[in-house]
Amino acid sequence: MYNTIMAVSAGVGLIGVALLGRQLMKRQAVAAEGWSLLFGIVGLILSILGFVMSITWPFRVPGTFTGNVLMGEPSAAFGLLLLAASFYLWQRRALFAAIGNASEPEADEALATVNRTLKPVSIFVFAAGLFMLACAVAWIRFRLGNAPSAEPLTGYLATVVLKNAPIAESYFLGILWGLVALGALLTPVALSKKSSGIYKVIFTAWLIAGCVFMLFGALNFYTHTGLIDNMTNGTAFTI
Questions:
Q1: 139 Cβ contact partners less than 8 Å away, ≥ 6 residues apart
Q2: Domain span holding position 203
Q3: How far apart are alpha carbons 108 and 209 in whole angstroms?
Q4: What is the pLDDT of residues 79-138, one digit of tens each?
Q5: Is residue 238, in this structure, part of any structural domain at all?
Q6: Does residue 120 sit within a domain?
Q7: What's the CA dihedral at 142, 143, 149, 153 to 10 degrees?
Q8: Three-class SS of residue 60?
Q9: Model-level pTM greater than 0.90?
Q10: Rounded Cα–Cα distance for residues 156 and 147 (Å)
Q11: Tens of pLDDT along 29-52?
Q12: What is the number of structural domains in the chain?
């Protein structure tokens, strides 16, 4: 039930990480203060609500119990990573500015410093890729995530248009989680190999996933409001 502001924040966070990574690859000057503020905002939202969601056992609404594991815990993990990135960007903003503005040797050393810092963090990012992959498989294998019939638009799509075929939304969520997993699993390889091709795969996966998360979360502000209204007031809005 929290995948409104959480989904939007996760999407913004993924888009931000992808765009920042592209700036670093192109050795452009990074506005570290701006990125720090962005990651701090979405990281705080994801950390707080992710932990609240993770320890709420079980959810009261039938069919949402798995949200603790598949949504809450990944959100908490991503939120903490973003908060750590926010702190580092703010503390080392001169270092990031040097990547694009300094002479070539200084820029090389600044970029190498960032790379050395990210390598230990990439261990947890890789672990996050493993559990995101497990979540992706779980969405599909156990046919989870089908919107309830009382939810406007998405519920109407699942129960009327798709004729109660939960596998459609399960595949949608599985692929979405899988894109995040792909980028996370490739991160340690990218930091070690410094291959532009691997970076492009990570950038594409996270940018696509981020945009979908952001749009999906924004849509949920409407559909969840309709769901709550239908469930509590006995209305029957479908669209």
A1: 70, 145, 170, 171, 173, 174, 177
A2: 5-233
A3: 30
A4: 999 999 999 999 999 999 899 887 888 989 999 999 999 999 999 999 999 999 999 999
A5: no
A6: yes
A7: 140
A8: coil
A9: yes
A10: 8
A11: 899 999 999 999 999 999 999 999
A12: 1
